[in-house]
Every structure is written in structure tokens, then in C-alpha cells.
Specification:
Blueprint: E1 5-11, E2 20-23, E3 34-41, E4 48-54, E5 63-65, E6 69-76, E7 82-87, E8 92-100, E9 104-112, E10 119-124, H1 126-129, E11 136-152, E12 161-165, E13 170-174, E14 180-185, E15 188-195, E16 199-209, E17 217-219, E18 230-237, E19 244-249, E20 271-272, E21 281-285, E22 291-295, E23 302-307, E24 311-312, E25 318-327, E26 332-337, E27 346-348, E28 354-361, E29 366-374, E30 378-388, E31 397-398, E32 402-408, E33 415-420, E34 429-437, E35 447-450, E36 453-456, E37 460-464, E38 467-471, E39 475-478, E40 481-484
Antiparallel strand pairs: 1-8, 2-7, 3-6, 3-8, 4-5, 4-7, 9-15, 10-14, 11-12, 11-13, 11-14, 11-15, 16-34, 17-33, 18-32, 18-34, 19-31, 19-33, 20-23, 21-22, 22-30, 23-29, 24-29, 25-28, 25-30, 26-27, 26-29, 35-36, 37-38, 39-40
């Protein structure tokens, strides 16, 4: 019995102009029920139409995606594991990123479940699910300058925003025990299918506000478990115009830190600025909790800070280099290469504040790093080099007010995201965690007080007939149901 599973993305972009079969049978098991699609309009200046449906369906929700934008959709497949996609232009790319198994059920023709009324309205899908009980609704959305929002019934989470046409693509929203969710009514919603197991949606969605434009950061670490295999995330913002976002699993193994002093807690030992144009120099600063100041004390010339000794790397291995430019001044540059002044791995100049990262394969056994500043002083921190086993995928495109992602969780459940809000609206890009895949109950840790310390119970035994037996699980009653808590 297969459950929702993510795979390495496969390009399944069809020919343009009509509905084309997307046969995913080579990539999914025999009991797969649906396809998880990542759809991208790569055109920078043109909105193009897209539509998707199960093979055998007469649905034709064919409408515009915003230019340079992306989103996810989940659509059913027929017995031969075929769905259909129609694109207006091959600038629209379609990737198969995963599939649903017996944990999801789909309709051949989607059902219009748009409620009557405005603002938050209940949508009850119990009449559509027969003897099943839906944990979450799999929807397709259409709107034309309309306000839209989705939430689990009873939730107090009230974020909603405008979207246009097919810009938001599909979404998945949790249902309560009576199979009801709420929709902030401003467009049309269609029920493609529903999940019956293997997912958990939070009563109130959890938000994370991006702290810095164009910078990857761990998101929802406190809310995701190591057993979670995927997450349903909505991106939205409170600005106007195209707004880029990306989410991806942290699924690469990280080696030991190779920079001997890149965090500058109390000094800049290991860094040499003797090649700076006098009297410019690098020095330690208490600013930003400890950083390296590239101090341009003269009226001209550059400050250059170079690792005193090269880092030893292994030819053919992958590495990740990161730097946090806390205060860029007017000009900050960085070079990383196989020679003291080389830039064959990384070469940047005149970059603004932010956390930057690069990936490269070592071609020699020595790595040299040099940071420079010109025209004004600058502050840098968190310079890091680690080995990794794979380069993470990036798809960084517009969401335009609201977009939805079904993303794989990485090692220990970790995912990361970054965003860029058009215009000057810092702090207005929101990642919203709606629910997770691979979990059907909220995690609860049991603790035992020993002395003055609370200790997590990792195993419990019970004596039966003089024999101590390990308890494989503990349940608690929530409402009328018993839920496993450990």
C-alpha cells in the first residue's frame, strides 16, 4: 500500500495548445492515485494559460498564470496512471515532483463547492466523500481579482489576500471531524479529491515571516518532526506586485566546518589584511554580536581580508560556501578559488546586505577566500565552508500575492525558504504551514521528573507475569478517539 511520496523532479512538460496525456506510470507504483505537479511560467513578460485534469475528465479550467510565477497542484490519475495538462506556450514548464497513494481519493470531474455568501463560509464536503472521512480537501482555485482564503473549520487564522485567474493554482486545506473547511469567498473552488489518511492539518495555521529578502532560512523547525515527509505551505504577502518565493527540503548532509574562525565572536584570528591599501585594514568589532569590520580608514583604496592559511579540500567533492554581509557599505566583494587571488569558485562584487551561499566542486586541494570592501567600511560574519553530498534544487519564481507549495521535508524534517517582496515592503512575506504529510496526530512528549530535572521518556515497560515488556505505544483519549502519543 503506497502513501504520498516525493521523487526527484521529472520534466513532464507537454506540447502546447491542447490537453496532452501525462503518463507517470514509469515513476509511480501501481496503486498511485494522483500526481503532484510543480508548474512554472518561465516567461518574464507574458501571462500564459494552464489547465490540468484527470484522464477521462471533461473539466476545462484553463486560465492564466502570472508571468515568471510558480505553484503546485495535485491532480488525480486514471487506472493507467495518466493525467492531462494543457499549456498555452512551452514557456510553461511542468514537473512531476511526487505522487499520492491510497491515502488520497480523486474525482474524475472536479466538483464545484464554491459556497454562497461573502467572507468566511463553511464548505461541507461530507456529501461528496461517501463512506470515507476526508481529513483534507484537494482543491483547484480560480479568481479574477478576488479575495481568497482557506482554513480548517473552527480556526481563528484569518489571513487572506487577492489573487487572479489561475495564479494560485491548487491548494489543500484541512477539514474538521465533520469534513468541513472554511473558504473566504471571492472566487471559485473545485474539489479535485481529498486525503483520507497520512496527513495532519493544524487547527490554526502557523506563520513564519521571512526576515531578509532573497535569503534562505530554516522555517518551521519547531513545528516539523523528523518523521514528517512533506508539508503543505502557502506563501502570501501584504505588498503589491510580483513577489518571489522558494521552498525546498534540507536534504543534504553537511560535513564539519572548515573555516577555523568565521563567526568572529571575540577576534579575527586567522585573517590577514596586510594586502589592504594603507591605512585601510580589517579589525574585530562587537557590532552584530561580533563581526569582522572591513575598516576603510583612508580616503581611497580597498580593504582586503584573506584567510591566513588555505583550507584543505578534497578534489571532486562538493562544498557550500556562505557569508553573512551584515553591513555592506557601498561595495563588498568576495573571491574563493584554488589560488591566493583566484576566483574560479566564487567571484562577486558590489553586493548588498544579506546571507549568500554558493556551491562548487573542488578541483585542487587548497581553497583560498578573500573578502574586500571599497568606498566605505563594511561588516561581515558567519563565513562558512562545509562539504555536502548534493546541491539542493532551487525554483525561485513569483507567487503574486498567494501561491501554494507541496514540499518534501528533508533530513530530520527540515525545510528552508526564501522570499523577495517587490518594492520596499520588508517583513511582509509570509510562509504559512497548513499541515504535514506522514503524520496523523500532534506530537506529545512524555517527561518524568527525576530530582529537579524533567527527562524525556524514550521507552516504557510494564510487568506482565513477572516479565518486563516494552510498551510500543501509549494512547490518550481526545474526544471520542484514542490517539497514539508515543
Amino acid at each position: 500500500m503506497s502513501l504520498t511520496t516525493f521523487i526527484t523532479a521529472v520534466d513532464v512538460t507537454p506540447a502546447a495548445g491542447s490537453y496532452q496525456n501525462i503518463d507517470i506510470s514509469a515513476h509511480v507504483p501501481a496503486d498511485a492515485t494522483g500526481a503532484i505537479l510543480h508548474i512554472i511560467n518561465t516567461a518574464s513578460l507574458t501571462e500564459y494559460k494552464v489547465g490540468y485534469r484527470m484522464k477521462g475528465s471533461t473539466d476545462d479550467r484553463y486560465d492564466y498564470m502570472y508571468r515568471n510565477s510558480h505553484g503546485c497542484a495535485i491532480i488525480g490519475v486514471d487506472a493507467n496512471k495518466i493525467c492531462q495538462v494543457k499549456i498555452e506556450n512551452t514557456a510553461v514548464k511542468v514537473y512531476l515532483t511526487g505522487y499520492t497513494g491510497t491515502d488520497a481519493v480523486f474525482f474524475t470531474n472536479a466538483i464545484d463547492v464554491t459556497p454562497v455568501g461573502i467572507q468566511w463560509q463553511d464548505v461541507n464536503i461530507s456529501a461528496n466523500t461517501g463512506g470515507n472521512t476526508a481529513l483534507a480537501a484537494i482543491l483547484d482555485t480560480l479568481g479574477a481579482g478576488e479575495w481568497m482564503g482557506f482554513r480548517k473549520n473552527g480556526s481563528t487564522f484569518s489571513l487572506f489576500c487577492t489573487t487572479w485567474n489561475h495564479y494560485a493554482l491548487g491548494t489543500v486545506v484541512g477539514c474538521d471531524a465533520n469534513e468541513i473547511f472554511e473558504f473566504y469567498n471571492g472566487g471559485s473552488i473545485y474539489l479535485n479529491g481529498y486525503f483520507i489518511s497520512n496527513v495532519l492539518f493544524f487547527d490554526d495555521a502557523i506563520e513564519h515571516i521571512a526576515t531578509t529578502d532573497d535569503t534562505y532560512e530554516n522555517i518551521f523547525d519547531a513545528n516539523l518532526l523528523s518523521s514528517d515527509t512533506g508539508a503543505f505551505i502557502t506563501f502570501t504577502d501584504q505588498a503589491y506586485g510580483p513577489n518571489k518565493y522558494a521552498v525546498r527540503p534540507i536534504d543534504y548532509t553537511i560535513g564539519e566546518e572548515l573555516v577555523p574562525n568565521g563567526i568572529f565572536d571575540s577576534n579575527i584570528n586567522g585573517w590577514d589584511s596586510s594586502t589592504s591599501d594603507s591605512p585601510n585594514h580589517a579589525e574585530w568589532s562587537s557590532s552584530y554580536g561580533g563581526s569582522m569590520r572591513l575598516h576603510r580608514s583612508g580616503s581611497s583604496g580597498y580593504v582586503r581580508a584573506t584567510l591566513s592559511s588555505p583550507i584543505t579540500v578534497v578534489i571532486g567533492e562538493l562544498y557550500r560556501l556562505k557569508i553573512n554581509i551584515k553591513e555592506a557599505g557601498l561595495e563588498v566583494g568576495l573571491r574563493a578559488g584554488s589560488t591566493p587571488t583566484g576566483s574560479d569558485y566564487v567571484s562577486i562584487s558590489q553586493v548588498p546586505n544579506g546571507l549568500y551561499e554558493w556551491y562548487f566542486t573542488a578541483t585542487t586541494t587548497s581553497l583560498y577566500i578573500r573578502v574586500t570592501a571599497g568606498q566605505s567600511s563594511a561588516y561581515v560574519d558567519d563565513i562558512s565552508v562545509v562539504s555536502i553530498d548534493s546541491v539542493p534544487l532551487e525554483q525561485y519564481y513569483n507567487g503574486y500575492r498567494q501561491a501554494n507549495a507541496v514540499v518534501q521535508c528533508g533530513i530530520d524534517g527540515h525545510i528552508e525558504g526564501k522570499a523577495h517582496v517587490d518594492g520596499n515592503y520588508p517583513g511582509t512575506a509570509w510562509f504559512i504551514l497548513q499541515g504535514v504529510i506522514g503524520r496523523t496526530y500532534n506530537a506529545i512528549e512524555l517527561h518524568l521528573n527525576i530530582g529537579d530535572e524533567w527527562n524525556v521518556i524514550s521507552g516504557t515497560k510494564v510487568q506482565i507475569g513477572g516479565v518486563w515488556n516494552v510498551v510500543s505505544s501509549i494512547k490518550t483519549q481526545i474526544g471520542d478517539s484514542w490517539k497514539v502519543v508515543c
